[in-house]
Amino acid sequence: MKIIIANDYDEVSRLAYGVIKNTVLANPNAVLGLATGSSPVGIYKLMAEDCARGEVSYKNVKTVNLDEYVGLPKDHEQSYKRFMQDNLFNRIDILPENTHLPDGTASDLQAECSRYDALVASLKPDVQLLGIGRNGHIAFNEPGTPFDSNTHTITLEESTRVANAKYFSSLNEVPRKAITLGIKGIMSAKRLLLVANGTEKSDAIARALGGPVDESCPASILQKHGDVVVVLDKNAASKLKF
Ligand code: GLP
To answer: Which atom of ligand 1 sits closest to the CA of residue 156?
Structure first.
């Protein structure tokens, strides 16, 4: 595991973007596993700026996202589909048909989970970008999720809903369920790229990187992957013991 400690959010974004840029320059047909939340926004901004300058093209790139709320219309301003369109897809030259997210509006969610697993297995992401929840979740795999889980629907922890309430007009509006790529699917990516910022992530980072590998901290499974790059700001790294 390679752990890089940066000064601030901008430097985290720049260093993490470097990993993505190198992946796409080395393989213009790369498959990128993408994430939502505030952590990747700076990375997406850099991707868009570089693409506009003609330095990197996403014309042959495919993407798979980690997760989606259940029950929000696709064009809802807080759906993860909309987030990805606004923050990235509409700002780079990627083909819409090459971008994939789980469908939280599917009438048969079980079938949707199976479809998504098969899709991710066929695409085999070259790099999977990850944020981390304050409780150590990755994607929406909450504490206690089995490490061998496939794509599944999950009831969000109250603390996760509270953390995400800042994007909604009230806590009540935050969906209670989500569909998420399982830990098995996340671990199937060739490389994992975890980014985290701020002291509110320092406990989760200390447990994920320095604690026991245990399902009570889903991100601790990263210790078992052979190719992981972690980019943290000083605050997120502040409780690491090494
Ligand atoms: C959300 C997402 C995760 C994300 C996490 C942290 O619940 N499902 O994929 O990594 O929260 O988000 P943020 O980067 O905004 O702190």
So the answer is: 7
Which positions of the chain have pLDDT values less than 50?
none
**pLDDT value at residue 242:** 67
Of 68, 87, 126, 135, catalytic = 135
Report field, pTM of the whole predicted structure over 0.85: yes
99-100: strand order across its sheet: 2-6, 228-233, 191-196, 127-130, 31-34, 62-65, 99-100
What are the tokens at 91? 């700002």
Distance CA 189, CA 123 (A): 9
Quick one: tokens of 7?
Answer: 């000064």
> At 223, is the secondary structure helix, strand, or coil?
helix
Atom of ligand 1 nearest to the CA of 38: 15
**pLDDT single digits (tens) 50-61:** 999 999 999 999
Residue 175: φ, ψ to 5°: -55, 155
Residue-level pLDDT at 146: 97
Looking at residue 224, its pLDDT comes to: 98
Alpha carbon distances (Å) from 183 to 14, 29, 138, 145, 189: 27, 24, 8, 8, 11
Q: Strand 99-100 and strand 62-65: pairing? A: parallel
